[in-house]
Amino acid sequence: MGDDTRAQRKTENGRSMTANKKLLILPGDGIGPEVMDQVVRVVDWYGKERAVKFDLDEGRVGGAAIEAEGTPLSDATFAKAEAADAVLFGAVGGPKWDTNSFDMKPERGLLRLRKDLGLFANLRPAICFDALAESSSLKTELVAGLDIMIVRELTGGVYFGEPRGIEDLSDGTRRAVDTQVYTTPEIERIARVAFDLARKRGNLVHSAEKSNVMHTGVLWREVVQKVHDEEFPDVELHHILADNCSMQLVRNPKQFDVIVTDNLFGDILSDVGAMLTGSLGNLPSASLGAFDEATGKRHALYEPVHGSAPDIAGQGIANPIASLLSFAMALRYSFDLGEDADLLETAIGNVLASGMRTADIMPANNPKVAKVSTGGMGDTILRELGKLAG
Ligand code: NAD
What we know:
10-stranded mixed beta sheet, Isopropylmalate Dehydrogenase, 13 helices
């Protein structure tokens, strides 16, 4: 497909897509730069073989930025992120900066990006590749073919609500307060993200809250139902209590398609979802902002769920799949290039099925499986992409 055709493409919302897309790469610390090297190779492949042209830029974040620029995220790098169509983020952190003051911790760079770009919707897919179903702690038949999406509200709720803090009381004891707070617009916009996604997948949404014991849960349920009835009546909607949702995720995860929930419950449920699939090294995520009606653009940051893995950094053994799948999410959600995203996901599935594994997903005593390095995994995925596209 040529650039012109791509340039004329429209998103589902009828917004025009231009040919060249601005991608900002923020590799960060530890294994971040190692896995992002493989992402850059794949981005280049798309440019050459699929005529999907990206303007690539790179910046520092986290510990790397503290060392070179004296801050976890400089204003100049933030400006680049603001101007980009999508940010591809590696990972931040490491023992070197563990004792830094709060504002000089590497994680502050990521938190600033999420907050200042208004990334309110966190998408965490839990997809289990058939070839890795055996590495889940659940029975193979429960997870083989699993494909669910957890949509977590990321910028509100109890992690941000006021008042918050710990106070000393006159009787010598202390009192800690966190406040769970949600407004109608906050719930409406995350519900829309979930329903919209469901339409492109299995057309089913479970909305998880605690409306039996929390006022925010009552409002959450009412607002999600209203958005559904007024805007997405074709999507199947179920309300589920968050504790039951966690139980059902472990009992029968394939009953779910899209789960939408608040910041706190999403934090927990997405980790449960993550572990259904076996390995941290395979899990991508996306954080999306609101559509700007004037430009038709939305801020978006894509990152692996894993951290900087200082225990294996510099050894060339990190698994790049989570970062590559994050790029696939960028193709799908920022650039409306679903077929190109499918291609990369299929290539990764095929490579795993052929028995290639990085160290973290090596099964014990299986002679049919071969261990590869970070770069070796990148090589095989690129070869598979070539075969599939050829
Ligand atoms: P981690 O995800 O970095 O590592 C946990 C374990 O999983 C380690 O044994 C690691 O070797 C392994 N692992 C993780 N990703 C892997 C991959 N791609 N390939 C192979 N093995 C992989 O979590 P942690 O050890 O708790 O944290 C390490 C540092 O990362 C800390 O400084 C933490 O604050 C930071 N962190 C950053 C992010 C982020 O940038 N978004 C997220 C979580 C943790």
